[in-house]
Amino acid sequence: MANTYEMFSVRVTAVEQATPQIKRFTLAREDGQPMPAFTGGSHVIVQMKGADAKVFSNAYSLMSDPRNLSHYQIGVRLEEQSKGGSAYMHQQVEVGSLLTISTPNNLFALDAKAGRHVLIAGGIGITPFLSQLHELEGSDVPYELHYAFRSPEHGAFQGELADGAHGQNVRFYIDSLERRLDLAGLFAGLDEDAHVYVCGPKPLIDAVSDGAKKAGIADARVHFEQFAAAPASGGAFTLVLGRSGRELRVEEGMTIIQAIENVKAAQVDCLCREGVCGTCETAILEGEVEHFDQYLSDDEKASQQTMMLCVSRARGERLVIDL
């Protein structure tokens, strides 16, 4: 059921300040062996050990060339309301630091059936597309990247995109300069075999999803990724642990994992806490769930068989899970 990952140790070999809020980290295996193979759009889980033995786990897209396995690169944005992980990466991690990361997983791969790839990035959402651009080099399938950000200084990796091999395929949209992406115009001219990919803040993902629907683009041709989990929303409910019969109250604004951990009711493994790794997948015994993860497919969500405890919630007043 739940996904499993191999974890291994890496050393930070380079740190670059890409924008005032984004750093690029280069990681290499401590044992000198090649990194595990990956495909464009993949992510890894990074574990960081803070003070008082507190462990942070965040998912980050791999942005380096999948053909070069001597190292990985990730981009980390310092979040204003950091749960600890991004602040740790920015404030504590330097060249020579050791981290533990997972083997890669890909929930955002390029679709092999696409006749055209339309990539739409907002802010830090540029990172998965950088590895995909490497895959698209020399491809017969046309592609284009549309990259939106607030102001020139927040356009991470803008220079290398504009000056590199993909320069003629990249368009930049800068809010402060009144250059804004016209989604309706973009979608109006797409062929029926074009696929749309979007990564960035939730408002951008929602705008792309809504715009694609209005343009008649089938859901199967629209792909999105958003690592920052939406805040837990929805009313309080009763959670029943099916194996013990123990009942817990999951309050509004609280996740199921938090409710379980607050009273040490059960041991739950979860690497990412953002609905992308799959390690906390748990069977639903009674009740229905509002799914907020990105791990399960739409069909799996509709089947109401399993859920991710880190982000999803009960749809009603009571939920029984196999724990």
UniProtKB/TrEMBL annotation:
Composed of an oxygenase subunit and a reductase subunit. The keyword Oxidoreductase applies. One of its GO terms (biological process) is carnitine metabolic process. GO terms for molecular function: 2 iron, 2 sulfur cluster binding; metal ion binding; oxidoreductase activity, acting on paired donors, with incorporation or reduction of molecular oxygen, NAD(P)H as one donor, and incorporation of one atom of oxygen. InterPro entries: 2Fe-2S_ferredoxin-like_sf, 2Fe-2S_ferredoxin-type, 2Fe2S_fd_BS, Benzoxazolinone_Detox_Enz, Beta-grasp_dom_sf, Carnitine_monoox_B, FAD-bd_FR_type, FNR_nucleotide-bd. Converts carnitine to trimethylamine and malic semialdehyde. Binds 1 2Fe-2S cluster. Its EC number is 1.14.13.239. The keyword Oxidoreductase applies. It catalyses: (R)-carnitine + NADH + O2 + H(+) = (3R)-3-hydroxy-4-oxobutanoate + trimethylamine + NAD(+) + H2O; (R)-carnitine + NADPH + O2 + H(+) = (3R)-3-hydroxy-4-oxobutanoate + trimethylamine + NADP(+) + H2O. Keywords: 2Fe-2S, Flavoprotein, FMN, Iron, Iron-sulfur, Metal-binding, NAD, NADP, Oxidoreductase. Transmembrane segments: none annotated. Pfam families: Fer2. [2Fe-2S] cluster binds at residues 272, 277, 280, 310. Its cofactor is [2Fe-2S] cluster; FMN. Residues 235-323 form the 2Fe-2S ferredoxin-type domain. Gene3D superfamilies: 3.10.20.30, Nucleotide-binding domain of ferredoxin-NADP reductase (FNR) module, Translation factors. Pathway: Amine and polyamine metabolism; carnitine metabolism. This is Carnitine monooxygenase reductase subunit.
